[in-house]
Design goal:
The chain is an alpha/beta fold. It is built from 14 helices and eight strands. The model has no long low-confidence stretch (mean pLDDT 93). The structure holds adenosine-5'-triphosphate (ATP) and magnesium ion. Residues 35-218 form the AAA domain.
């Protein structure tokens, strides 16, 4: 092996080039029916929003029709997708509280064809409390989504994927996401308490499966902010994979400054740095998810 190839940077470039070449040849199949994911983890800052917007963007860029529902009052997914969430713009709040149809509030991404977003505006922060007194408080989103998917189907323009970006809690907003979804995508950051958090989350999902959504399945676990240089990242990833071999995606998302910069330019990594390691990793993760769906 030449000296150049043995330098870590040269090796990284070679690996990245090989991955990009492989991505050119893989197919991103369209699912037979709309796949609805809730991207959940009650732990804060583990990469839920980053995963939601970047996988959604990658799938849309591959030619699929994708809707992101921002059900987190922080509105980070709406910001990253560059949709309007200011002033009197209507969004998830109106869908949940006033039963406004999703079709009336969904915005299309200005940057990526086939990608749309139901934005989270500031008033969504009050919804957690307001929902307590509303009828069918846990299934409001499910109702709205079922109607919208039916309308899209009837218009011969069906959606392929829906991703719901959850807040870091297990309150009524997250419950609405769990009730509306068919599948759960869990992003996990390689840190000491990750596994403990994961087992709490799985217990909660098991409980709510009993009374809210019997068919809900945890279909994907994605390691985020992975740092190859630390043993901890690797150990957590190994342990998660050991416990959940079927669900854990083999792609891991590396820690990357570019990934964390993209939202401040109202962009996903897919448009902000399309050739970098972050975009390549999220495109790989999106393809893995899409091909996993093809086998269902
Ligand atoms: P919250 O629980 O607050 O909703 P979250 O789980 O949605 O958080 P993110 O907002 O996606 O987490 O990520 C938390 C922070 O980490 C953000 O500042 C984000 O830009 C950054 N981040 C996410 N993924 C990566 C990555 N792979 N490399 C570097 N930074 C990242
Ligand atoms: Mg978030």
């Amino acid at each position: 092996m030449s000296d150049a190839f043995e330098s870590p940077i040269a090796r990284q470039i070679a690996v990245l080039t090989a991955k990009k070449r492989a991505l050119k040849t893989v197919k991103t199949p369209r699912p037979a029916t709309t796949r609805i994911f809730t991207v959940s983890n009650q732990k804060g800052g583990v990469g839920k929003t980053t995963t939601t917007v970047n996988i959604a963007a990658a799938l849309a860029q591959a030619g699929l029709k994708v809707l992101v529902i921002d059900i987190d009052p922080q509105g980070n997914a709406s910001t990253a997708l560059n949709v309007d969430r200011q002033g009197d713009v209507a969004g998830t709040y109106e869908v949940l509280i006033d039963a406004v149809p999703l079709a009336d509030v969904v915005q299309t991404s200005p940057d990526i064809a086939g990608l749309e977003c139901c934005p989270a505006t500031l008033n969504l922060a009050g919804a957690e409390i307001e929902l307590v007194d509303v009828e069918q408080r846990e299934t409001r989103l499910r109702e709205a989504l079922t109607t919208y998917l039916g309308e899209r189907e009837a218009a011969s323009d069906p959606l392929d994927y829906v991703f719901i970006d959850c807040p870091p809690s297990l309150g009524l907003l997250t419950m609405n996401a769990f009730a509306a979804a068919k599948e759960v995508l869990i992003p996990i950051q390689g840190e000491y308490y990750a596994l403990e958090g994961l087992s709490q989350l799985l217990n909660s999902i098991n409980r709510l499966r009993e009374y809210l959504n019997p068919n809900l399945q945890v279909s994907a676990i994605l390691m985020t902010m992975f740092d190859r240089r630390t043993n901890l990242s690797r150990e957590v990833a190994d342990e998660v994979r050991q416990h959940f071999p079927e669900q854990t995606l083999s792609t891991v998302i590396p820690r990357s400054v570019r990934i964390s910069e993209a939202p401040s330019y109202s962009q996903t990594i897919i448009t902000y740095d399309p050739e970098g390691t972050g975009a390549v990793a999220y495109r790989e993760a999106a393809n893995e998810l899409a091909n996993q769906g093809a086998h269902r």
